[in-house]
Each structure stands twice: as C-alpha cells, then as structure tokens.
Design a protein that fits this description.
Elements lengths: L1 E7 L6 H4 L2 H8 L3 E7 L12 E2 L9 E2 L1 H14 L4 E11 L2 H7 L4 E6 L4 E2 L1 H6 L3 E4 L9 H12 L9 H5 L18 E2 L2 E2 L2 H4 L3 H19 L8
Parallel strand pairs: 1-2, 1-6, 4-7, 5-6, 5-8
Antiparallel strand pairs: 3-4, 9-10
C-alpha cells in the first residue's frame, strides 16, 4: 500500500476530495492511505504561528522553518520516505511520466506551500523533488497535492476496474487519446464513424490511432515529437 503524508495549513481542504471519487475508492481498496497533517499543530507560541514577514522586506508572508522541521522530523522518525515533494511553480513540470514514476513509490511526503513562499531552508534540508502542475500561480499547494494524488492513485493496481482503459489514456503513449462515442449510433444528424460500427478490430484500431494523431496535431502540436 502506498502512503502519502500531506503537510498543510488548510487540512480541511482535503476532507471532501478524499471522501469522494477515485481517491475514496483507492482508500477503500487499501491501495493508498493519506494522512493530512495540520502545520499549525507545530506552530509557535500561544497562537501557533506558522508564518512571518520575509527578511529583506517586501510584500507577502513566508512560512516559518520551525513548524515544518518539527512535523517532518516527527514523520521521519516513524518510517523512511522515498521522496519529500514540494509543490511549487518553480519545480519540474508534472506529466504522465512523472505520475508513472511516483506510482512505484511506497512512502511520500507532500509539502503544501502557502502565502508568498516557504523558508528556503526547508527545501535545502528535506525536499528531494519539486513539482509544478503548470506555469501559473495558485494560492497554495493544496490543489496541486490533490492533482498529484488523483493522478498517482489511479495507476495503483486494483484501483481501476478496467486497467486497459488506464493504459490507453492520453499521454501514456505520448499523445492525446482518440475520440469516443456510445449509443445511439446517430443523434440529431450526427453519426458515429463507420469504422467504430464495423466490428472489425483492426479497422477500429487503425481509426483510433489516426484520430489520436490528428487530435494531437491539432490540440497539442508540441507532443508530435512523441508519436
């Protein structure tokens, strides 16, 4: 079973997503366990402070070093971790290949930043990988953490009932998936391609490969080199 520990200042953010959809299924099937840790439990002083103004001035607040150190060190006393992952726009861009790689791990820690930044000493001491879900800025690392967990959980054996479907997903072959249709065969003048109705598996496969290539060229020409 994979274990993921999430460190965040917004633990309630994860409550609903973990109780619904694929993450709920993965947890019920005991393929993944997720533990969400409230960084404020390790905060300083009476008010459990976790942030402060940056040295050198400037706008925004920075998450302090002490709460993260206390939480991560407590977790590391209990088990070894394959990676400590910081979710940040300046990381390596997350893609299907990375999802496949992380799905082979056993124990992971996800660090969710918030406010302006986290103290750089946290990254220097603990972080082994920095991952970005895109070239844009969010208010924190909670949404990227959910994206990460969903994309990894669906790759774990037994989570999806149809494992073949997973292997045919977009990006698994380096290209976008083809178009799909279901009943009725004709709706308001729009017909399902004849190849898909033919019952000829070779013809169907050829149509899907051609459609996949066409959709990739149109929507993601940057991926053409992968075909």
């Amino acid at each position: 079973m994979m274990r993921i520990d999430v460190i965040t200042v917004l633990p309630d953010f994860f409550q609903s997503p973990l109780e619904h959809g694929l993450l709920r299924i993965a947890r019920q099937k005991q393929r993944i366990e997720v533990h969400v840790h409230n960084l404020r439990d390790y905060g300083l002083g009476k008010y459990k402070q976790v942030d402060d103004t940056p040295f050198g001035g400037g706008a925004g607040m920075v998450l302090r070093v002490e709460p993260f150190f206390a939480c991560i060190e407590a977790l590391k006393k209990e088990r070894d971790y394959d990676d400590v992952i910081f979710l940040s726009p300046d990381g390596e861009v997350y893609d299907q290949n990375l999802a496949n790689e992380f799905a082979l791990k056993s124990n992971l820690i996800l660090l969710c930043g918030h406010y302006k930044a986290i103290d750089e000493r946290i990254r220097e001491t603990f972080v082994t990988r920095t991952v970005s879900i895109g070239d844009y800025v969010l208010s924190g690392g909670e949404l990227p953490a959910l994206v990460f967990m969903d994309s990894v959980a669906r790759l774990l054996p037994g989570v999806l009932n149809d494992s073949e479907s997973m292997l045919l997903d977009s990006f698994q072959k380096g290209a976008l998936d083809c178009a799909y249709y279901t009943r009725p065969a004709e709706f308001r003048g729009q017909k399902v391609p004849d190849a898909l109705l033919s019952g000829d598996h070779k013809r169907i496969q050829q149509w899907r490969e051609k459609n996949s290539e066409g959709r990739t060229k149109k929507n993601r020409p940057d991926l053409i080199k992968n075909l």
